[in-house]
Design brief:
Shape: globular
CATH class of the largest domain: Alpha Beta
Mean pLDDT: 90
Helix content: 40-55%
CATH architecture of the largest domain: 3-Layer(aba) Sandwich
Length: about 290
């Protein structure tokens, strides 16, 4: 069969030097430091164009710990740690592992709330082929998995923006396959989180969750983005973690900055806040 598509000369002529390889097929060349600007552009364009092709008009970002698993798994993990403690009851490291396992088990209901939130949003908004309020996560396990899973439960699309890490992180199995992306650069990944976002729903988490939350609050505080709702799920966790009033009393933020976010305890409460803040159909966009 004849084809007009150009062939890779290296594949058919292995004795030719690597310099003869076409630039767009030379991964060693594309990985050079001098090509960073091009890689940044490609990493911006690929997910954006694919989401356009998939009809993604607006999104809701869900963040939270990769270590908060579903309640059944959390109970199993706690039982394992408690059994190990019985064999070495005076081991301080094992005692700490048990305390952590118990705490995670107590917070495992957030997995179910994240899953329910995504089910609620996706079943409400994905109608007549138009993809509004598509759930997007970091693509990993834990709360991210729960949110992708909720959309999967109702046959709706969801997005995963994974990142290359020293310890390989695999995308969870509930992301829509055509909307599963891998990033090299955190900065481009962060921009894609907010590009089409109507809201950011944040469950308890660690450094990564806090990083995304505070960057978003900074963009809202400085007016760099507008019309984005931020919902913190689990007020006891957030108020215990962050002394908001101290920031106000120290003059580091204004009292009005505390209105940049809302609290919710359940999936329904989080969704009600978003609906009340976004009655119109037009998606959030970065300013020019």
């Amino acid at each position: 069969m004849r084809t007009d598509a150009p062939q890779d000369p290296i594949e058919h002529h292995p004795c030719l030097p690597l310099s003869y390889r076409r630039a767009d097929q030379d991964t060693d060349f594309l990985s050079r430091d001098e090509l960073r600007a091009l890689r940044l552009q490609l990493e911006w364009l690929k997910p954006d164009l694919i989401q356009q092709d998939e009809g993604i008009h607006s999104t809701i970002v869900v963040f939270g710990s990769s270590r908060l698993v579903e309640p059944g798994q959390a109970r199993t993990q706690m039982a394992v740690e408690e059994a190990d403690l019985k064999t070495r009851p005076h081991d301080p490291e094992q005692q700490q592992r048990v305390r952590i396992a118990r705490r995670r088990q107590a917070m495992a209901h957030y997995y179910d709330e994240a899953r329910e939130f995504s089910r609620l949003v996706s079943s409400t908004c994905h109608v007549e082929g138009r993809c509004e309020y598509v759930v997007v996560t970091g693509g990993g396990p834990g709360i991210m998995e729960a949110a992708n899973r909720g959309a999967h439960d109702v046959g709706a699309k969801s997005i995963g923006l994974n990142i290359s890490l020293p310890h390989e992180q695999q995308p969870n199995p509930y992301i829509t396959p055509t909307l599963s992306f891998q990033f090299r650069y955190f900065a481009l990944r962060k921009m894609h989180f907010l590009l089409r976002a109507k809201a950011l729903v944040v469950f308890p988490g660690g450094f990564g969750t806090l990083d995304e939350l505070f960057e978003t609050l900074t963009l809202l505080q400085t007016g760099r983005v507008k019309g984005l709702s931020v919902v913190l799920v689990g007020r006891a966790f957030w108020d215990g973690l962050i002394n908001w009033s101290m920031l106000v009393e120290s003059g580091f933020i204004s009292q009005k900055d505390l209105h940049l976010f809302h609290y919710a305890e359940t999936a329904q409460e989080a969704w009600d806040i978003i609906v009340s803040n976004h009655p119109g159909p037009s998606p959030f966009r970065f300013p020019n």
